[in-house]
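YM 10:42: Exonuclease domain-containing protein sequence, as discussed on the call
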Amino acid sequence: MAALLDIAKLNEYDRSQKEKNSIKAEENASVKPETEPSPKKLKIETGSEEAVEDQPPLLGDTGPSGKPKIYGDQLAELKRMLRERTKKIRSVPQFRLRELGENASLKVDINDRIPMFLSDLQHLLMYSQIGVHSPYSPARWCALEKYNRLVNVNLLIVENISLYHFTSHESHFPFLSATFEHKLEIITPNSYKSDIVKDLSMVPLTVLKTHDLFNTLRNFFHIEEPEVAVPVSDEKLPPFDKYPRTQLLLSGWQMVEENFPLPIKGLMERKYVGYILTKEQYKDVTPYSPMFAIDCEMCRTSTVKPDNKIVDYLTKWSGINHKMMKNVTKKLKDVQDDLRKLLPEDAILVGQSLANDLHALKMMHPYIIDTSVIYNITGDRSRKTKLQVLAREFLSEKIQAGHQGHCSTEDSLACMKLVQLRLRKHIYFGDAVMGGVHQELRAYPDMGTSQYATSMLRQCTKVDKTASVVGLADIAQRYKFYVDKGESAPDKNISCSAEKSNKEVVRRYCESLSRHSLNIAHVRVPEASLEENGNCGKAFKTVDKWIRQVYEETGDSSLVAVLFGGQKQGNGVCFLQLKRDFI
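YM 10:58: structure's back
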């Protein structure tokens, strides 16, 4: 404001001087000179002593923008304010999505969107509480900076509301839609006949694959339940295998991350049209399940003629040329039929970046060992090592060395050899990312074994943190069951409270937000109130009101998450917003 007044004074002073100069010029023009004018320009007085006294104090020279410069104490004060603001900006938490998170955003076209799993949200919750000590990191899909500056993390779970409900009735969620920046499609346990409480509460602590980790895939595909469940430790192994080959299989979320085609509700209708399963029904996989290496440039010894005209054979990469395709009549459907006849019901497919091959085949399969995942020499999961390099480093073999393109038989054989080598060594052989997992397990001896999953809430409260869960009676009881599972004594840092109604859950939840680092509220909207011919709009507006209450009670520098639990026939949606004061 002071600078504005100074500028106004300067403008007024300029106008007065201009008027005085104009009057003097008229007077000089009316007087005829007695002598010849001097060739030098006359010095025009810009004002008298009185005018100088009337001039307002100047702040300084004018800068390129036309605004006056500042010096001295004012400049020092401005620099101090800028330093404080910069320091404050750098100290507050920051949250942003990475590429995989962006792919799940509702901003992405529904045909290109790749949903996330509930485990992704679980990893974010754990990282927000214990940072680098978390067994899992959310770095694959998001970045949370200055997690230790978070005041608290608040999660509201609303069961029975799906992505469809939100997108179809978004006008009934005005606060939620306008306030939360990140809206992500998520595959919730309801889609694969599991339980939100269980999947959110329990954390598998290593990458070792036990039977429990196949629950997701078991419900995507038609997999027969084994008549008698055999513990992993009691399973007999093939002569040269040091551990079950099932431990190298990709989990459900890994298959989504690697862009494998999966029979997920919604994606089948829009993204995987024309895709088929390798079998109508599958058997449970075992350490003796046969492995089949596949490379899609050539399936066994058959080439496939595409339906469309070939414009480029890409011989350098495919190894296919015009001569090879001249008399080929076999179509994609014929190859699909051949594979369906060839593969047994518990077959394990092996390959390098096998998702690309399955997309080319337009086929889906539940049991996958991908050499680009189980081998990693970069130390970074996002950076894949070429098969040529893996063969050279681990097999001492040269492949893809000729100028006639890749040989599919050679590539497939190399993949099979790499998997067999890994089975003869140990579970972390050739994996720079997981190479230190033994040291990590020794550092956290109470974190369990490969066949044990610990409580997510217990992990979050290991470093002087507290957590609170508020839910309906049956829901709160399940949370408490998983918190106390396998433990001799209850955890004093974890509070589980039961309420009789959704309204009471939200009220109790809002009252306790400031007292705990991690807060979870779990409500359930009756399915009857969500029927399209009923008054579903009222139910949605009530949910939006709950979300507003939670958000307004949340302090600055806090992460707020809302999870719609989805339904059997529809995915859920997760909303995320980092609340912070205006800087």
